[in-house]
Design brief:
CATH class of the largest domain: Alpha Beta
Number of strands: 21
GO molecular function: oxidoreductase activity, acting on the aldehyde or oxo group of donors, NAD or NADP as acceptor
Family: Belongs to the aldehyde dehydrogenase family.
Protein name: Retinal dehydrogenase 1
Strand content: 15-25%
Keywords: Oxidoreductase
Number of helices: 14
CATH topology of the largest domain: Aldehyde Dehydrogenase, Chain A, domain 1
Pfam families: Aldedh (PF00171)
Structural class: alpha/beta
Number of domains: 2
Strand order of the largest sheet: 12-15-16-11-10-18-19
């Protein structure tokens, strides 16, 4: 049974409103391509209204600005309770609108709740320093919110991205204007829950995404019973539509053939189907455009000489499904080894030495995440030190939490999310210096 669609308008100045133009756009169910709802289509006029409301909410004498930091945190804790109350509904809505398998959307919703509570705990931990300047002066720093923040959400994990960006900004004391992705506006529109908690948010809608071409290394000494499932999870999770997908899989030559055989068998066992069914492991791509883009990459892989061992085709004619796909004998110069596919495509490359594979792993403009499977601690430490990535996993993949800093090197993005310093991007640091009275 489809979840009820409660909110389809713009949320500006604590009110649900139609777009100034009166325009709407259709949002679709990627399982079958059917229209879910018509959502208000904001434009420049609506953005201006949202920004004006956010500026009023940030005025120095506004209710929001006059809150104590602890009160801000208390509001965010209440928001976490409200999301927990509606967790099942939000997970179902995410699956329905995004195509994310239900078990995955439930996990992401719970991760979001953990993030809200962690960020709420930071609200009253924002503090400056005293500065030991020379002379008869007293100097200190203040950390103050930057003001109105424009936050652009990607479509691949909308509810978690909404929480991570919006709640971080609010914990810092900012006000926000949010633009959900056109493909997945519905869970972001449930941000009305923040209004229930505090009445201090303004939502509006564009699209942004960090890139990755993450290398996962499988050494000869790796436990293949662990490495093969994790490597599959790393690239097939959420249909490959995650920025940290393990889309370059380097396997050492001594175990290459055995690993490839196991990877193909594992891919063939995956259950693909309706994402709202509890047994489904892989759902559809987000829309027809992305499905065709992924299929285009698969064709490019075949044309450039990669060996297609399983998958590679669309499933059925309804919805946007692609078979779990495994390529072997991929080389670094092939398109599927260089460009972000954002689909269920595992590209397996062979290597001989650790030093060689570190150089090959780093030969990309991306640097978001990386991983390695090995039983040799020195190998793990050397790889973790020298690979150019903001997140490195050893003998696991995709493990994370709000306490762990997240962000990329090179073209994979600027700044960091999560961790105790995640609010810094939303703060200005001000130095205040006071002349002390003459000594007694």
């Amino acid at each position: 049974m489809a979840p009820q669609i409660k909110y389809t308008k713009l949320f500006i100045d604590n009110q649900w409103v139609d777009a100034v133009s009166g325009k709407t756009f259709d949002t679709y169910n990627p399982h079958d391509g059917s229209v879910i709802a018509k959502v208000a289509e904001g434009d420049e006029a609506d953005i201006n209204l949202a920004v004006a409301a956010a500026k009023r909410a940030f005025h120095r004498n506004s209710e929001w600005r006059l809150l104590d930091a602890a009160q801000r945190g208390a509001i965010l804790y209440k928001f976490a309770d409200l999301v927990q109350r509606d967790a099942d509904y939000l997970a179902e809505l995410e699956s329905y609108n995004n195509g994310m398998v239900l078990s995955f959307s439930k996990n992401f919703t719970q991760s979001g709740i953990q993030s809200i509570r962690y960020l709420a705990s930071l609200a009253d931990k924002i503090q400056g320093d005293t500065v030991p300047l020379n002379g008869e002066v007293f100097s200190y720093t203040l950390k103050q919110p930057v003001g109105v923040c424009g936050l652009i959400l990607p479509w691949n994990v909308p509810i978690l991205m909404f929480i991570n960006k919006v709640v971080t900004a609010l914990a810092a004391g900012c006000t926000v204007v949010v633009k959900p992705a056109e493909q997945t506006p519905l869970t972001a529109l449930v941000g009305k829950l923040i209004q229930q908690a505090a009445g201090a948010t303004n939502l509006k809608r564009v699209t942004l995404e960090l890139g990755g071409k993450s290398p996962l290394i499988i050494m000869n000494d790796a436990d293949l019973n662990v490495a093969i499932p994790y490597a599959a999870f790393g690239v097939f999770a959420h249909q490959g539509q995650i920025c940290v997908a393990a889309s370059r899989l380097y396997v050492q030559s001594g175990i290459y053939d055995k690993f490839v055989q196991g990877a193909v068998a594992f891919a063939k066992q995956r259950t693909v189907g309706n994402p709202t069914e509890p047994t489904t492991q892989q759902g559809p791509q987000i829309d027809g455009e992305m499905m065709n883009k992924v299929l285009g990459y698969i064709e490019k892989g075949k044309q450039e000489g990669a060996k297609l061992l399983t998958g590679g085709k669309r499933i059925g004619n309804s919805g946007f499904y692609i078979e779990p796909t495994v390529f072997a004998d991929v080389t670094d110069d092939m398109t599927i080894a260089k460009e972000e596919i954002f689909g269920p495509v595992q590209s397996i490359l062979k290597f001989d030495t650790l030093e060689e594979v570190i150089d090959r792993a780093n030969a990309t403009n991306y640097g978001l995440s990386a991983g390695i499977f090995t039983t040799n601690l020195n190998t793990a430490l050397q790889y973790s030190k020298h690979v150019e990535a903001g997140v490195v996993w050893v003998n696991t993949y995709l493990a994370s939490g709000p306490q762990a800093v997240f962000g990329g090197f090179k073209d994979s993005g600027l700044g960091r999310e999560n961790g105790p310093n995640c609010v810094d991007a939303y703060l200005e640091v001000k130095t205040v210096t006071i002349s002390l009275p003459k000594k007694i």
